[in-house]
Every structure is written in structure tokens, then in C-alpha cells.
């Protein structure tokens, strides 16, 4: 067996040496660790959503459930982590905020990639990973294609479109998925898939909501460090849903 230590396997020298506070204020390391941890979880989310897309494309729906459940759990952990950051008060943050310069989570290529892979394609695409993901079908596009192959009347426009363009709610897609909910025994694999997707969407919405509350609590309505409108921009994203028809169909059941 190859000699391997715990520290070697986890590259702890690199990981634990990746925090470089610029100020001498006590709370800046927390701010750094918090965001680095978020980036690690987003990296894992990208890994898991990619697998879910491949499984759904291969009609291996049952196998995709575990992967989608894992995504939801990751998002739940990310949401809870805002509670740790909230132990930093507004005055604590102001002591070192200036050292951030123009850097901002708004610039996270991985966060944008997660958004795009789920189906949010109406935001900025700053980095190469986001742009590459936008050229491929989203998780929702793969789900609609699987539903079509299973026999649901998904309209052709939802199956062959400009993947990089924002997705618009489609009444026929909604009607097709409503059939699943009206006869879940017949469509059980798709019914389970739909509920796992709603879990992911709800967890992502919860993360956004907690983010808004955290930013509001710490900086109020100040402009974001990257030039965004801060809380106002974040709050505007709260109504967005990655799989809109899975939410709207419930009204007609």
C-alpha cells in the first residue's frame, strides 16, 4: 500500500495555507473561510449536477434521485453556513470591507455555473465554466427530454432550442408535467424526478433568501463591493425558479 498521510491525501498544506487576510482585523479570516468553503461546495454541486444530467439523459432516473438529493443536502449546508457569518456584525465587517476592493461574490464563476446548469440563463456569465455550461442543455432541459422519451407531450420547441437563451415558462410543458401529478402511479419515475427537482429548487431559493437576509443585516442597502446594487439585486432574484412549470402546475391540480 502506498504511504499516504491524512494531510497528504487532503492537501492540507495547500488548503489551510489558502487564507491570506489583508487586514489585521479578527473577523476577516472568517469572511475568507466562509466564501472559500462556499466555493468548495459549489464545485461539488457542479460535479453532482453534471452526473444528474448524464443519468437523466441516459434514462437512468432512479439513479439520479440520490445525486439530486445530495445536491439538496449540499445546498442546505450552504444555507446554514450563513448563520456563522451572521455572528459578524455590521461594524465588524466595516473594519475590513475596504480591503475587498472591487472583489465580490457577484463575480463567482462557479456560482454562475451552478445557476446555468440548473436552468437560470438570464444573468451575467463572467467566466469560462459558465459560458461552457450555457452552451449545453440545463438540468431542466434534460428532464423535459426524458419526459418526452417516456411519452409525455412535451412540445418540440422545448426539446430543440438555443440552449444559451433564457428559458421561458411554457404552458404546454406545464400541462405535460401536470399529467404526471394527476396519475403518479403510471408516471412514478417521472413523478419522483419532479419532486427531487423541486427539492433542489426550493433549497436553492432558501439559500438565496438567507443570503439576502445576511447581506441586509451586515451592510443594509449599501452598494455591493463589485458594483452591484447589493440587497436590491439579490432580492430581485428571489422569485426565480429553475423548474418553473413544476411550481405553476400545482395551481391547476
What does this structure look like?
This protein is mainly α and 253 residues long. The mean pLDDT is 94. The chain has helices spanning 6-9, 12-16, 28-57, 61-85, 90-94, 109-118, 128-134, 139-150, 171-182, 188-219, 231-236, 244-252. The protein is globular, with a radius of gyration of 20 Å. The protein is built from twelve helices and no strands. The protein has one domain (25-252): Methane Monooxygenase Hydroxylase, Chain G, domain 1 (Up-down Bundle). 62% of the residues lie in helices and 0% in strands. The relative contact order is 0.13. The longest helix has 32 residues, at 188-219.
Quick recap:
This protein is an all-alpha fold and 253 residues long.
Give the secondary structure arrangement, pairings included.
Blueprint (H helix, E strand, L loop, with lengths): L5 H4 L2 H5 L11 H30 L3 H25 L4 H5 L14 H10 L9 H7 L4 H12 L20 H12 L5 H32 L11 H6 L7 H9 L1
Helix pairs in contact: 3-4, 3-6, 3-8, 4-10, 6-7, 8-10, 9-12
> Spans of 5+ residues with little confidence (pLDDT < 50)?
none
Helix content: 55-70%
Could you give a short account of the major beta sheet?
none
Average pLDDT metric: 94
Radius of gyration: 20 Å
Please report the first level of CATH classification, the CATH class.
Mainly Alpha
Portion of residues in beta strands equals under 5%
Corresponding CATH architecture: Up-down Bundle
Shape: globular
Could you spell the SSE succession in H and E letters? Answer: HHHHHHHHHHHH
Count of beta strands: 0
Count of separate DSSP helical elements = 12
Secondary-structure-derived class: mainly alpha
Kindly identify the CATH topology: Methane Monooxygenase Hydroxylase, Chain G, domain 1
**Number of domain units:** 1
Q: What is the distance, rounded to the nearest whole angstrom, between the alpha carbons of the first and last residues?
A: 59 Å
Subunit structure: Homotetramer.
Keywords: Dioxygenase, Heme, Iron, Metal-binding, Oxidoreductase, Tryptophan catabolism
Protein name: Tryptophan 2,3-dioxygenase
Organism: Sphingomonas japonica
Amino acid at each position: 500500500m502506498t504511504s499516504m498521510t491524512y494531510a497528504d491525501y487532503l492537501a492540507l498544506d495547500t488548503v489551510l495555507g489558502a487564507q491570506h487576510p489583508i487586514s489585521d482585523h479578527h473577523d476577516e479570516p472568517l469572511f475568507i473561510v466562509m466564501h472559500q468553503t462556499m466555493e468548495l461546495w459549489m464545485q461539488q454541486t457542479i460535479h453532482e449536477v453534471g452526473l444528474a444530467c448524464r443519468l437523466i439523459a441516459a434514462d437512468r432516473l432512479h439513479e439520479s434521485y440520490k445525486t439530486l438529493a445530495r445536491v439538496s443536502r449540499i445546498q442546505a449546508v450552504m444555507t446554514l453556513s450563513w448563520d456563522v457569518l451572521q455572528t459578524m456584525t455590521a461594524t465588524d465587517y466595516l473594519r475590513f470591507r475596504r480591503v475587498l476592493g472591487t472583489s465580490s461574490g457577484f463575480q463567482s464563476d462557479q456560482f454562475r455555473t451552478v445557476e446555468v446548469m440548473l436552468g437560470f440563463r438570464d444573468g451575467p456569465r463572467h467566466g469560462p465554466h459558465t459560458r461552457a455550461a450555457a452552451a449545453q442543455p440545463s438540468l431542466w432541459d434534460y428532464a423535459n427530454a426524458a419526459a418526452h422519451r417516456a411519452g409525455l407531450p412535451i412540445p418540440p420547441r422545448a426539446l430543440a432550442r438555443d440552449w444559451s437563451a433564457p428559458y421561458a415558462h411554457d404552458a404546454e410543458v406545464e400541462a405535460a408535467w401536470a399529467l404526471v401529478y394527476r396519475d403518479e402511479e403510471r408516471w412514478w419515475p417521472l413523478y419522483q424526478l419532479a419532486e427531487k427537482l423541486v427539492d433542489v429548487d426550493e433549497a436553492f431559493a432558501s439559500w438565496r433568501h438567507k443570503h439576502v437576509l445576511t447581506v441586509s443585516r451586515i451592510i443594509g442597502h449599501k452598494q455591493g463591493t463589485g458594483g452591484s446594487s447589493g440587497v436590491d439585486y439579490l432580492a430581485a432574484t428571489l422569485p426565480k425558479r429553475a423548474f418553473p412549470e413544476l411550481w405553476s402546475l400545482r395551481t391547476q391540480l
